[in-house]
Fold:
Amino acid sequence: MRNNLSDLNPVSTISEINPAPEASPPAARKSLWREALEIALLTALLYLGINLTIGRFRIESVSMMPNLQPGEYVMVDKVSYHFVAPQRGDIVVFQHPLGERDLIKRVIGLPGEMIEIANGVVKINGQPIVEPYIAAPPGGGGQWTLGPTQLFVMGDNRNNSSDSRAWGPLERDLVIGNTIIIYWPPGNWGLVPHYTYAASD
Structure:
């Protein structure tokens, strides 16, 4: 008895002979473009976020010596002063009141205080303050009474600094931020030397 040919030579189904093709090259390229776009957008958002919160400033003069040197770069915290007020001893970057380039100085006087400079000594409301960070005692003198939104700022290199002694108190809203880190050159890396007056106030 002759065998049925279908029993001897089973025929494979079409799906076994021709398996389903994988994703076409155009679809793969589209996926790569989408990933690249997502990475670019994320990078842009990170860059924008960093620039809104952290600034960079180059020291261009000798006015903050011996603590900050010309050519150093510092990072500036542009966020914290939205929540807390500047403190005496902070080193801040601000817009020049006369419209020139940004400057960096140390906060000495706070809103409502009276600042007096005489015989190389700085007094706050009649009380002398200790200033171990200055290059030399300041020459000259004067007296200033600060308004409710004003700060008095001076460079640490007192005799080579254009500051509140020359152009008056600084309005608080001109402050850009509080310096935090010296990041360049690498050999000078470290925290910016702020000072606390708790023991001298």
User: Anything to note?
Assistant: Residues 55-191 form a domain with the Umud Fragment, subunit A fold (CATH 2.10.109.10). The helical segments are 5-8, 14-17, 25-53, 164-167. Confidence is low (pLDDT under 50) at residues 1-17.
